[in-house]
Every structure is written in structure tokens, then in C-alpha cells.
């Protein structure tokens, strides 16, 4: 196996960062259980998935998480924090 | 193969999305309704995973996971497992194809070593063999 490129969509950026994912997208303020958005919001879900897949084609910093704002989500939820 | 915890296991993506086949691997506890549910009674978690075919129907999937609120996924599985969304992106030409295999597992486990050295590799091998995926989208809950 030569390896498989991956991109992670995470709503727990602090938690995910501990595993240093090669590419990751944090949709800002999305709550746990809403990685792609809310039920039935297909346009938003498509936008999030397009944005995540696009991280495969740009220079990201492996191990870091890219934050993007999707205002159409319409809510902000505090992500889980890592206990120090 | 030894995976170092100190370096990022980065695999370059060499290609174009419009010519690529994409698989989804979710830690959101997604499984087909006719597959064995994940074991939420075991405090150590469940190290298993479930494989879905290319043509799996969203309506045939459900979530068994007790560490996040999956009430929205119960209404629309695409919020954690975007299989119909991926099909839409294929239809509009953003990607070439939906992979022949996708995977659900329950990310919650206290058996981290077994997850890291066992399940994670088994999932990678599963995708490597027969999915035809050029890249994988990972989701949590």
C-alpha cells in the first residue's frame, strides 16, 4: 500500500488536532453530530464537502486544521475542549 | 509497517478531483440497519467496523453511538455520512465517481492501541482493496 490521501471534516478541532491529521476542515461553530450541516440543508452540505475535498488539491500544513465559516449554518456551538 | 506518532502520515494527492473516486469513512457509528449494531453496552467501546457498497441507500443506514447527539443524523444521515452529497458532487462533475466501498465505525473506544494498530489498519486495507478510491473523506460525529 502506498497510502491513501485523506481529508477530515471535524467539529472538534482541538480533539482532532491531537492526532495531527494530514488535512482537516473545521466548519466553524458546527455542533457535534452536524459535520456537514443540518438535516436537509443539501446546498450547505455540498458546499462543506466541496470545501473539504478541495483541501486535497491545495498546499495545506499537514497536522493543522483549516477553519472555514459557513454563515448559512446560522448557529454557533462551542466545540469540545481538550482537558489539560 | 510502523506508524510514528511523531510525524504526520501525509500522503500526497496527485490528480484532479474531477478525475477522482472518493470514499467516505466515518467514526459516527453508522451502519446498515441489517448489520449488527455497534456495542454501546461495553464501556471499552467497539473496535469493529461495517462496510457499505457503492449503491448503499441512505434510508438503509442508521447510527448506533452513545457519545454524541445523533438525532440530526437520524433525520438525515448525510450530516455525518454524506453519501448522497457525494453522489450530487459526482452528478455535477466535481468528482469522477463514488467509491465501491465506504466504512462506518464507532470512534469511541478506550482501547486506543487496538484502534490505532488494529482497526485503523484494517479499515485502510479494506479501502485499499477493491474500493478504487483515490482519496477518502473522514468524518466524526
Task: Walk me through this protein's architecture.
The complex is a heterodimer of chains A (about 80) and B (about 140). Chain A contains 2 helices and 3 strands. By secondary structure, chain A is an alpha/beta fold. Chain A has one domain (about 10-75). Chain A has a 3-stranded parallel sheet, with helices on one face. In chain A, helix 2 (about 40-55) links the parallel strand 2 and strand 3 (about 65-70). The mean pLDDT of chain A is about 95. Chain B is an alpha/beta fold. Chain B has one domain. Helices cover about 20% and strands about 20% of the residues of chain B. Chain B has 3 helices and 7 strands; from the N terminus they run E-E-E-E-H-H-E-E-H-E. In chain B, the strands form 2 sheets. In chain B, strands 1, 3, 5, 6 and 7 form a 5-stranded mixed sheet that branches. The two termini of chain B are about 30 Å apart.
Secondary structure elements and pairings:
The complex is a heterodimer of chains A (84) and B (141).
Chain A: E1 6-9, H1 13-17, E2 24-27, H2 42-54, E3 66-68
Parallel strand pairs in A: 1-2, 2-3
Chain B: E1 21-26, E2 30-32, E3 49-53, E4 61-63, H1 71-75, H2 83-91, E5 97-98, E6 101-105, H3 112-128, E7 135-139
Parallel strand pairs in B: 1-5, 1-6, 1-7
Antiparallel strand pairs in B: 2-4, 3-6
